[in-house]
Specification:
InterPro entries: Acyl_CoA_acyltransferase, BioF2-like_GNAT_dom. This is CelD-like protein. Helix 3 crosses helix 4. Helix content is 36%, strand content 30%. Strands 1, 2, 3, 4, 5, 6, 7, 8, 9, 10, 11, 12 and 13 form a 13-stranded mixed beta sheet that branches. It contains 11 helices and 13 strands. It folds into 2 domains: 168 residues, Aminopeptidase (3-Layer(aba) Sandwich), CATH 3.40.630; 134 residues, Aminopeptidase (3-Layer(aba) Sandwich). The chain is an alpha+beta fold and 335 residues long. The two termini are 39 Å apart.
């Protein structure tokens, strides 16, 4: 029989996990305890986490959630999250995964009126079915995409030859005379972070609320040797920057920024050219992931788009959910 337990702080979660979602045991960055703990601490510190653990025999399911109010939960994720998914430990077979998810959904049904999960990819159908079996009214909606490049053994020259002509022409024209010096660092220093903030401040109209989260991410990945922080500079001054991580054959593109005063020179595009070349020919990655968002420029660099889904679950025992549930269902039908 499945047993559920809730945790309301990461101080409780860490001993219960006993290292099983640490870097050494967890290949995917977005499944790690460090990721969730840092995301919560830097972006959601005003709300306690709501972490659910369900066990049956030696198998476990972990759901990292966040309260929106007293009756509503959301996935512990935001715009930095490439994906969110249920995390299974001890590699349970699919039928046991389904049973664990259904047990989690039944447990949550007792105290919550609404739950939303985003961004969900491959696990969407499994989650939808489990929550429906447990008695939730659950709706799945496509909501954006995730752009990914399967390198397929190509070197950078072969990859670049297959990019759209307009992109290759832009890099050739803007790169004449090497107008920008490019450097890619694996170790974070205070000086590099100052340069990063200098570019970032000139890239957006409003300050980014999660800049401290990015700093913490860069620090952790620097220590692990997985950080790739690129800069394009003009006369020593940083004018474009990119924050990537490279691990287990996968390059993740976390953040791009450029000084808008240099738009005419396309320093961000030239820096991307160098970053892709380094990831493919120096790091020998198998996959490059541009993360969430359907920005048009991503299609020029990537070959595939995976659909991301949002799953909204409504507890029919709460009359307050009936109208939102109906509206969500209509929204899913009309696309």
């Amino acid at each position: 029989m499945a047993v559920a337990r809730e945790y309301r702080s990461f101080a409780e979660v860490r001993p219960a996990l006993a290292g099983r979602l640490d870097r050494a045991a967890t290949p995917c960055l977005f499944d790690r305890i460090d990721w969730f703990e840092s995301l919560h601490g830097h972006c959601f510190a005003d709300r306690p986490p709501h972490v659910l653990r369900v066990t049956e025999e030696d198998a476990e399911l972990w759901l990292f959630l966040l309260p929106s109010d007293t009756r509503r939960l959301s996935a512990l994720a935001n715009w930095y999250s490439f994906l969110w998914r249920p995390i299974f430990l001890s590699a349970p077979a699919l039928p046991l995964q389904a049973a664990l998810l259904e047990a989690a959904a039944l447990h949550l049904l007792a105290d919550h009126a609404q739950i939303d999960f985003y961004p969900v990819q491959g696990e969407a159908e499994q989650m939808l079915a489990a929550f429906r079996r447990a008695g939730w009214f659950a709706v799945r909606r496509p909501m954006g995409g995730r752009h990914v490049l399967d390198v397929k053994g190509r070197d950078f020259a072969a990859y670049w030859a297959q990019r759209p002509g307009r992109l290759r022409n832009q890099v050739r024209r803007k790169g004449r005379g090497a107008p920008f010096a490019i450097d890619i660092s694996k170790r974070l220093t205070d000086a590099l972070w100052d340069d990063y903030q200098h570019v970032h401040a000139r890239s957006w109209k409003d300050a980014e609320p999660g800049l401290s989260f990015l700093r913490a991410l860069a620090e952790r990945e620097s220590v692990a040797g997985t950080l790739r922080m690129g800069f394009a500079r003009r006369d020593g001054m940083p004018v474009a920057t990119q924050l990537w991580t490279v691990e287990n054959g996968v390059a993740l593109i976390h953040k791009l920024s450029h000084d808008r005063a240099f738009d005419h020179g396309s320093p961000g595009t030239l820096l991307s050219h160098a970053m892709f070349a380094h990831a493919i020919d120096a790091d020998h990655v198998a996959t490059i992931d541009y993360g969430t968002g359907d920005n048009a420029y991503k299609r020029d660099w990537m070959d595939e788009r995976a659909t991301l889904h949002r799953i909204d679950c409504f507890n029919p025992r709460h009359a307050s959910t009936w109208i939102p549930a109906a509206r969500t269902a209509i929204s899913a039908l009309v696309g």
